[in-house]
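1st attempt posting a full record on here, be nice pls
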Amino acid sequence: MSISSSLSAGVAGLSANATRLATIADNIQNSSTSGYKRASVDFQSFVIDGSANSGSYTAGGVTATATRIIDERGPIESTGNALDIAVTGRGMLPVTTAAALGETGGSDPLMMTTTGSFDTDEDGVLRTSSGLVLLGWPADSDGSIPTLPRDTATGLEPVVVNVNQTAGDPTTTVNLGVNLPATATSDGATGDALPLSIEYFGNLGTSETLEITFTPTLPALAGDPDTNTWTMSIADSAQGGALIGSYELEFDDSRADGGTLSNVTDLSGGTSYDAATGELSLTVAGGPITVVVGRLGDQNGLTQLSDSFSPTSITSDGSPVGNLTSVEIDEGGYVTATYDTGFTRTIYQVPLVDVPNLNGLTSLNNQTYQVSQDSGSFFLWDAGDGPTANIAGYALEGSATDVASELTALIQTQRAYSSNAKIIQTVDEMLQETTNIKR
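the predicted structure (as C-alpha cells):
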C-alpha cells in the first residue's frame, strides 16, 4: 500500500537526517581540534519498482552514507614549539601509540596523522599528550640516513631525544692557510725552524694537537740563489708526538705565480698529497684526517711571501663534547639536535606516508588513520619528494571545519527533519481517516 510506504519513507528520512545531524555536531565540536578532518553525509535514493501500469507508486525512501574527507586540509597555524609539526600538503606523519611500545612479538602498528604537538616524555620519546609516538628512520653516526625499504614500516623507530645527551664532533678536516717568510731561504738566513700548533678533537671529544714544524732549506754555497724550499713535519700529540708526515715544499718565484706552491714531495715514502684537491691524507690516533695545504699555484693555501711568518687562515671542523640545547625538524623531515658547542647532528629522518586513496583510510581516535583495503598500500616518501609536501615546524594544522557552512547545513537538516516528521504525521492522520470510515 502506497500510504504505508510513505510512512516507511518518512522514517528513513528521519534516520538519514539524524545521521547528517550527528556529523554536523561532530564537525562543530571539533572546529578547534588540530588536524580534524570534517565528516560529510551523502544521500542516495532507494527506489522500489512497482508493477508496470499499475497506477500505484511505492516510496523507497533514502539512505545516508557518512564519509571522512581526509584529503581536505585545514589551515597551517604557527606556534612557539619547535616540535609542533604539520604537513603542508599531501602526505602524513608516521605515528604509533605509546601503549604499543611496551608490546613484544612484533613491530609497532603504523598509524598516520597530518599534525601533532610533540614533546619528550620521561624516556626521551617524542609523543603527543594523547599518546601518539612519532616514528622515523635513525641516522648513522655521521648523520646520514641508511637505505631502508619504503613499502614497509620495518625500519621505522620511535624518535628518541635524550635531553641529557652529550655528543662530540671529531675533527676530519683542517685548512692550513699559512704564509712562510721568503727571506728565510736566503743565503745568510738563520735556518731556524718555525713551529705551529693546531688543535683538533679526537673521537672521544678530547683536545689534541697537530705539531707542525716548517724548516727552511738554505743555499748550499754562499752567494747561491734562494732555495724557496721548506721541509714540513707533522707530529700527533695523541701518539706521543710521533711523526705522521714529512713533506718538502717548493714555492714558485715567477712573476705570474710567485709565492705559491710549485711542488709537494712526500718525504715519508707515501703519496698522500693530491695535487687536484691540494689535500694531504694523514692518520692521527683516531683515524684519517685531511689537511688542506692548497693546490699548486693556489694563493689560498700555503704561501711564501715577504719576510713574515703568519697564519692567514687556519680552520678546522669538529668540536668538543657539548650538551644538547635544542631539537628541530626541517622541511625535509630531518630531526636535528643542536649542542651548546655549536655542533649540530642529524639524528632521525621522519618520512611522509602516502596512499593512493586518502579518503579510503580507516579513521581512528585522535585524528589518526590506518591503511584499509579501500585506501591501497602505503609508501614512505622523503618529505617534498614525489607527491608529498614539506613538513613545517613551529606549526600545527587547524581543523578543516568551516563553522559557517556547518551552521547553514544545520538549518537545512533541521528543516528536512521537520519535513520528514510532517510526512509521518500526515500519514498518521490519513490512516486515522481510513479507520474512521467504519465506526
